[in-house]
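Contributing new records

If you add data, match the layout below exactly. Sequence lines come first and carry their own label; structure lines follow with theirs. Keep one chain per record. Anything else will be rejected by the validation script.
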Amino acid sequence: MYAIVEDRGGQYKVRTGERVRVPRLAAEEGSEVLFERVLLVGKDDGEVLVGAPTVEGARVVGVNEGEIKSDKVISIHRIKTNSMAPRRGHRAKLNVVRIEKIEV
């Protein structure tokens, strides 16, 4: 079984037991995380439930496994007249959520 959930503007395809990287949560490590905006649920028998906009009564339960940093993103601003290229780096903070169950 799989589901597509929406969380703060991002959409994620999740399955039971897998880990998903989501933007930083205000939750403690080891606490339960609920995704209640479930857009689509695909069952093992081939049936697909599509929400309009969400599937009624469906939710995904996960556990917060901690915080990590994403890969570094470097931006370069080239200044043509001075032969300068100031660089700036950024690493976004993410949380790893292990999906426990998908309830329909």
